[in-house]
C-alpha cells in the first residue's frame, strides 16, 4: 500500500470521527430525556456513590420516586438546569406526586382518591410544560442523532462537500464574532483616523496600542475571506470572489471613519449578509441533491440485500466506512481529552497514576459509542496477541472471521451490554469493567488453545522430526496451564466467593482440562508412531480421553447455566442476559448433549455388531496373508464378515459408524428379518445376471493390437468354499498367467485397460469380482486390495498396470 493511499485513508477516518463525537454527546445527555438522579454522569466517585445510595433509599421509600426523577424533581441542580420554574411550583408538584404515592400505597391504584389526584396531575400546567420541554429536547436530539448517522455513512465525496458547507458556515459566524470584538476594541480607543492623518507614530507604533491589537483581526479576516471564496459551494462570480476578503475586513476599515455609533454597530451584520446569502443559496440548491443521494443510497442497499443478503451488505459497509479504525481514533481522542482535563485541572493534591487511569477507563465506557471505541482498541490488542502466538508457533491463519481480535471484540461488547456497563455508577462501573476483562482473559486462553491444539495433532500425526516446533507447542500448552492457575490463585486470595468468581473459575478449569486432553491425545499419537505393530486399542484410548474432556465441558456448561440463572433472577436481570442464556442452553448444552449421545449410540451399536462377528484364527490369517483393506496395515487379528472378508476390528467399527455395508462388496453385514428377504431376492437377481456373458470393450488405440479377452468363469463356482474366504490378492493371482498369455509384444509396456460394467454380485464371490474384471492384479497386497475394492463397486473402472507391476 502506497503512502498516498495510507494518507487518504487516514483523512477519511478523521472525517468520520466528528459525527461519532456528536452521537456520543447526544447519548451522554440521554437523548434529551431527564435521567434518574442516582445515575448522574459525574466524575467524582464519592459523590456518585452518595447520590446512588440516596436514590436507592428514596426509591424504596416512595413508589413514584421514578416519576420525580424522570422529570428532574427533587434536586435543585437538575431542576435549575432543566427549567426556570420557581421553587414554590416545584414544591407543589412534588407534594402532589407524594400524595398520589401515599394514596396508591394505602388505598390502591384503583381507588377514587388516587384517580382524583392523577386527574389533578393531568391538568397541572407545570407538568404539561415539563412534558413539552422534554418532548422538544428529545425530538431535537433524535434529529441530531439521525443527521450525524447519515453524515457518517456518506461516501467520501459527499462527506467532503458536507464539511466544505459546514466550514463556510463556520467561517461566517467566526468572522462576525471577530468583527464585533474588533469594533468593541476600537470603541474604547482614540480615533485611529486622526492618528493616521496627524502621523502620530507614538500611538500608532505602540506595542499595546489599538493598531497592534487590530492587526491580528485584520489578518484573520483577510485569510477567512480568501478561504471562504475558495471552499464555498454557492455561485462563483469573478468579481464577488475577488472582493470576498474585502467584504470580510470591511467592518474594521469602515469603523475607522467618523460614522455614527448606530451604523458602526450594524457593520458586522451587513458584512455577514453576503456569505450568509451564498450559504443559503447553497443549501437550497443542495437540498434536492441531498434527498436524491439518500434515496439512491436506499435503492443501492435494497438491491444489494436482494442480490447478496443483509449480512453481505453489513460486511461491505463495515469495510467501506472503516468502522474499527474510526472507533479507535474516536476513543483515543476521548481519552486524550480526559487526560488533558486531568492534567490542567487545578488541585492541591498531586495527580496520581492509578486513580487517573481508573477515571479515564470509567469515562471510556460511559456511553454505547465509548464502549464501541474501547471494543475496537481491545480488538486490536487481542489481534496482535494472537498474531504473536501464531508467529511463535510458526503458523499463520489469515481467516478474519476466526481472528482473535474479531471474536474478542464481539465477546467484550456482549459482556458490556449484558452487564449494563454504561448504566452503572462510576465506582461500580470500574469494578464491572475489571470483571469483564477477567472473563475476556479466560476466553482468550480458550482461543489460544484452539490455535495450538491442531498444531499438536498435526505434529503427532505427521511424525514431524522438528524438535523446535514440538518444544514451542508444548511451551504454549504449559503457559495455558500455568496462566489460569495463577489467575485463580490471585482471585481466590483477594476476593470473596461470588457468582462472577465462580464463572471465571469454571472457564479457567475448563481450559486446563482441554489442554490436558490435547496433551494426552498428542502423547497417544506419539506412542503409536513409535510402535512397530498396529495398536488396536488406540481408538478406544482416544475415545475415553476425549469423552472425559467433553463430559467435563458439558458439566461446566450446565454449571454456568445455573450460575447465569441465579444472576438473572437474584442479582441483575435483563433481556440481553436472558437471550444469551437461551443461546447458551441451546448450543452449549442441548446440541452438545444430542451430539454426544449420538456418538455414544453409534459406538455402542458398532461394538455390538463387531462382537457378533467371528474372530479370525491364526491359520486363517496366515492363509489370507494380506493387509486390511481399510487401513492397509498388517493384520495380526481380524474379524470375518458374512461375505468372508477380513478386516481389523477397530477399522470395521469405524466403518460401521458410517454405514452397515461391507467396504469391499457392499453387502449388508447385519441383517434384520426384512433385510434378509430383500437380500435373498437380490442374490437371485445377481445369480441370474451372473449367467449372462460379460461384454468387454477394449480401447480403440494403437495399444489395442492383441486379441479380445473373454471373461473367465466365476471363481466362486470353481473354487471350494474355503478358497472363497482367501485374500483378494490370492484369488486374483490365478488369472495372471491367462491374462498375460493373451498379451502381445505391443502391450508389454502397458496392459490394455478394459472397462467392465459390473452389476450386483453375491456376498460369497469376492474372487469372481477380480477375475471378471479381466485385469491381471499386481503382486503386492495393497494393490490387490485396491483392485478388489474398485471391482466390487457399481461404477465403471479403468486400471493401468505397468509391466514392472506384472
UniProtKB/TrEMBL annotation:
Lineage: Eukaryota, Metazoa, Ecdysozoa, Arthropoda, Hexapoda
Major localisation: endoplasmic reticulum
Skewed-composition ranges (Low complexity): 717-751, 758-774
GO biological process, alphabetically ordered: ERAD pathway; proteasome-mediated ubiquitin-dependent protein catabolic process
Superkingdom of the organism of origin: Eukaryota
InterPro entries for the chain: HRD1_E3_ubiq-ligases, TRC8_N_dom, Znf_RING, Znf_RING/FYVE/PHD
Subcellular location: Endoplasmic reticulum membrane
CC annotations in GO: Derlin-1 retrotranslocation complex
GO molecular function: ubiquitin protein ligase activity; zinc ion binding
Native species: Drosophila navojoa
Gene3D superfamilies with a match to the protein in the record: Zinc/RING finger domain, C3HC4 (zinc finger) (3.30.40.10)
CDD domains for this protein: RING-H2_RNF139-like (cd16476)
One Pfam family from the record: zf-C3HC4_2
Transmembrane residue ranges: 126-152, 159-177, 210-231, 367-386, 406-425, 471-492, 499-527, 547-570
Membrane topology according to the record: Multi-pass membrane protein
Positions of region (Disordered): 693-788
Protein name as annotated: RING-type domain-containing protein
Keyword field contains Phosphoprotein: no
Keywords associated with the record: Endoplasmic reticulum, Membrane, Metal-binding, Transmembrane, Transmembrane helix, Zinc, Zinc-finger
Occurrences of domain RING-type (ranges): 628-666
Xref: SMART domains: RING
Amino acid at each position: 500500500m502506497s503512502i498516498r493511499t495510507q494518507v487518504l485513508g487516514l483523512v477519511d477516518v478523521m472525517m468520520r470521527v466528528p459525527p461519532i463525537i456528536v452521537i456520543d454527546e447526544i447519548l451522554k445527555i440521554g437523548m434529551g430525556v431527564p435521567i434518574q438522579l442516582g445515575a448522574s454522569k459525574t466524575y467524582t466517585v464519592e459523590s456518585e456513590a452518595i447520590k446512588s445510595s440516596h436514590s436507592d433509599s428514596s426509591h424504596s421509600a416512595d413508589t413514584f420516586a421514578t416519576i420525580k426523577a424522570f422529570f428532574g424533581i427533587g434536586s435543585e441542580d437538575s431542576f435549575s438546569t432543566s427549567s426556570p420554574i420557581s421553587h414554590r411550583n416545584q414544591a407543589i408538584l412534588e407534594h402532589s406526586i407524594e400524595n398520589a404515592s401515599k394514596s396508591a400505597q394505602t388505598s390502591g391504584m384503583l381507588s377514587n382518591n388516587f384517580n382524583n389526584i392523577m386527574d389533578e396531575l393531568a391538568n397541572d400546567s407545570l407538568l404539561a410544560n415539563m412534558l413539552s420541554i422534554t418532548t422538544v429536547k428529545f425530538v431535537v436530539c433524535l434529529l441530531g442523532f439521525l443527521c450525524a448517522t447519515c453524515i457518517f455513512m456518506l461516501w467520501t465525496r459527499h462527506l467532503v462537500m458536507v464539511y466544505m458547507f459546514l466550514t463556510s458556515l463556520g467561517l461566517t459566524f467566526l468572522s462576525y464574532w471577530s468583527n464585533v470584538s474588533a469594533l468593541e476594541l476600537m470603541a474604547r480607543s482614540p480615533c485611529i483616523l486622526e492618528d493616521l492623518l496627524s502621523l502620530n507614530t507614538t500611538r500608532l507604533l505602540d506595542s499595546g496600542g489599538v493598531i497592534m491589537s487590530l492587526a491580528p483581526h485584520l489578518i484573520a479576516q483577510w485569510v477567512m475571506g480568501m478561504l471562504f471564496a475558495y471552499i464555498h459551494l454557492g455561485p462563483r462570480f469573478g468579481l464577488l470572489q475577488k472582493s470576498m476578503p474585502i467584504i470580510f475586513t470591511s467592518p474594521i476599515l469602515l469603523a475607522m471613519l467618523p460614522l455614527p455609533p448606530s451604523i458602526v454597530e450594524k457593520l458586522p451584520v451587513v458584512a455577514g449578509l453576503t456569505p450568509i446569502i451564498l450559504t443559503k443559496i447553497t443549501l437550497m440548491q443542495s437540498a434536492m441533491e441531498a434527498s436524491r443521494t439518500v434515496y439512491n443510497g436506499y435503492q443501492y442497499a435494497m438491491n444489494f440485500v436482494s442480490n447478496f443478503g443483509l449480512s453481505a451488505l453489513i460486511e461491505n459497509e463495515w469495510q467501506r466506512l472503516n468502522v474499527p479504525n474510526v472507533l479507535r481514533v474516536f476513543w483515543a481522542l476521548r481519552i486524550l481529552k480526559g487526560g488533558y482535563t486531568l492534567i490542567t485541572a487545578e488541585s492541591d493534591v498531586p495527580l496520581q497514576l492509578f486513580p487517573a487511569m481508573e477515571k479515564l477507563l470509567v469515562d471510556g465506557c460511559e456511553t454505547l459509542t465509548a464502549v464501541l471505541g474501547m471494543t475496537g482498541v481491545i480488538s486490536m490488542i487481542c489481534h496482535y496477541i494472537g498474531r504473536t502466538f501464531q508467529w511463535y508457533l510458526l503458523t499463520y491463519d489469515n481467516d478474519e472471521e476466526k481472528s482473535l481480535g474479531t471474536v474478542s471484540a464481539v465477546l467484550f461488547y456482549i459482556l458490556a451490554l449484558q452487564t449494563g456497563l454504561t448504566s452503572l455508577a462510576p465506582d461500580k462501573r470500574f469494578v464491572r469493567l475489571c470483571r469483564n476483562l477477567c472473563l475476556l482473559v479466560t476466553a482468550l486462553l480458550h482461543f489460544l488453545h484452539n490455535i495450538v491444539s491442531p498444531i499438536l495433532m498435526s505434529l503427532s500425526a505427521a511424525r514431524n522430526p522438528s524438535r523446535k516446533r514440538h518444544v514451542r507447542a508444548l511451551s504454549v500448552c504449559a503457559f495455558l496451564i500455568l496462566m489460569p492457575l495463577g489467575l485463580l490463585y490471585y482471585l481466590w486470595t483477594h476476593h470473596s466467593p461470588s457468582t462472577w468468581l465462580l464463572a471465571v473459575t469454571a472457564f479457567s478449569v475448563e481450559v486446563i482440562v482441554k489442554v490436558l486432553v490435547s496433551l494426552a491425545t498428542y502423547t497417544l499419537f506419539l506412542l503409536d508412531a513409535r510402535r512397530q505393530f498396529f495398536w488396536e486399542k488406540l481408538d478406544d484410548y482416544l475415545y475415553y480421553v476425549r469423552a472425559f474432556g467433553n463430559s467435563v465441558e458439558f458439566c461446566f456448561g450446565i454449571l454456568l447455566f445455573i450460575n447465569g440463572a441465579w444472576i438473572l433472577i437474584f442479582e441483575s436481570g435483563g433481556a440481553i442476559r436472558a437471550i444469551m442464556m437461551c443461546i447458551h442452553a441451546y448450543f452449549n448444552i442441548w446440541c452438545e448433549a444430542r451430539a454426544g449421545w449420538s456418538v455414544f449410540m453409534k459406538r455402542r451399536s458398532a461394538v455390538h455388531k463387531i462382537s457378533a462377528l467371528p474372530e479370525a484364527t491364526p491359520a486363517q490369517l496366515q492363509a489370507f496373508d494380506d493387509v486390511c483393506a481399510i487401513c492397509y496395515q498388517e493384520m495380526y487379528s481380524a474379524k470375518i464378515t458374512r461375505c468372508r472378508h477380513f478386516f481389523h476390528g477397530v477399522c470395521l467399527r469405524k466403518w460401521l459408524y458410517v454405514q452397515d455395508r461391507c467396504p469391499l462388496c457392499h453387502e449388508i453385514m447385519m441383517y434384520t428379518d426384512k433385510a434378509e428377504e430383500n437380500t435373498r431376492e437380490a442374490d437371485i437377481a445377481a445369480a441370474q445376471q451372473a449367467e449372462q456373458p460379460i461384454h468387454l470393450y477394449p480401447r480403440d488405440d494403437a495399444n489395442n493390437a492383441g486379441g479380445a479377452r473373454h471373461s473367465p468363469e466365476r471363481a466362486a463356482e470353481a473354487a471350494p468354499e474355503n478358497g472363497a474366504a482367501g485374500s483378494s490378492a490370492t484369488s486374483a493371482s490365478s488369472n495372471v498367467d491367462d491374462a498375460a498369455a493373451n498379451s502381445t509384444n505391443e502391450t508389454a509396456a502397458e496392459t490394455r485397460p478394459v472397462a467392465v460394467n459390473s452389476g450386483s454380485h453375491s456376498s460369497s464371490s469376492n474372487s469372481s469380482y477380480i477375475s471378471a474384471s479381466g485385469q491381471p492384479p499386481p503382486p503386492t497386497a495393497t494393490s490387490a486390495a485396491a483392485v478388489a475394492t474398485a471391482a466390487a463397486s457399481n461404477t465403471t473402472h479403468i486400471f493401468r498396470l505397468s509391466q514392472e507391476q506384472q
